[in-house]
Amino acid sequence: MNRVIKDFLAKRLPIKGKAFMVFILITAVGLTAPQFAYAAFQWLSDSIAWLLLLIAGIIGELTITLIGLLVDVAQFNNFIDAPAVAKGWGIVRDVCNMFFIVILLLIAFGSVFRIEEYQYKKILGKLLIMAVLINFSKSIAGFFIDIAQVVMLTFVNGFKEAAAGNIIIGFGIKEMFNFASNISNDTEASGQGLSGLEYLAAAFLALVTITITCIVVGIYLVVFLLRIVALWFLIIISPIAYALSAFPGDAKKYSSQWWDYFGKYVTTGPILAFFLWLSLAVMQTSKTTYGNLNVSQNEGGISII
To answer: Does the predicted TM-score (pTM) go above 0.85?
Structure first.
């Protein structure tokens, strides 16, 4: 009887031992797997956040450079005295002066053949006025540009000293970088649960904000550069606009188009400078009135004071 019992136990114990080992293994994996999973997720989120902040830092440096260029371009005031403008305008003016001989011939033929549009009574007076204005077209254009530049530079001088700092602080980009850095330090020190997600969210928000800021500043810079080039070109061809206004018929509409483009590009600078100054002034007022955004962490997540 004892032998039968021993044989039975010998056959059953290995099976129970294997089952017990499997149970121990499953229990150990179940207890340690969440920690490994969290550690892997934390490492992945921290790595992505670090990469996002690296990209945001590069874009931030580019934004500061663009802001410096924007201020320099906005202060540009050498329109009528630029060498290319002076030389080009002189050539166009001389050509337009020669065209007045053609206009005088048209007046003569119109008077002889009784063509109403070309009779001297209708266009001779305007012709003489335009013959004088052609030689002063650059000075006239410079007069209107100077008026616009006085207004524009008034606003530019209001924000040029600390434009980069005002924009970075005004959009809250500095706070976002500081918040992400603080979360990163807290994560390394304590490894609390939601810190990785908070770090990633702050880094992503900083990247989005600095990217939008960079794009807006870049657009402003391009518009100011296009304004300078457009005004140069319009000043060079300004004698043509005065000459065409003396011609009868459809030639006058081209002179009107020149004035439309000239007025648009002259006023673009002061308008953009005003809204840029106003935006920075509003952001600074908001900072002064409501104070800086203070963000702190607690066990329940993020609290805003």
So the answer is: no
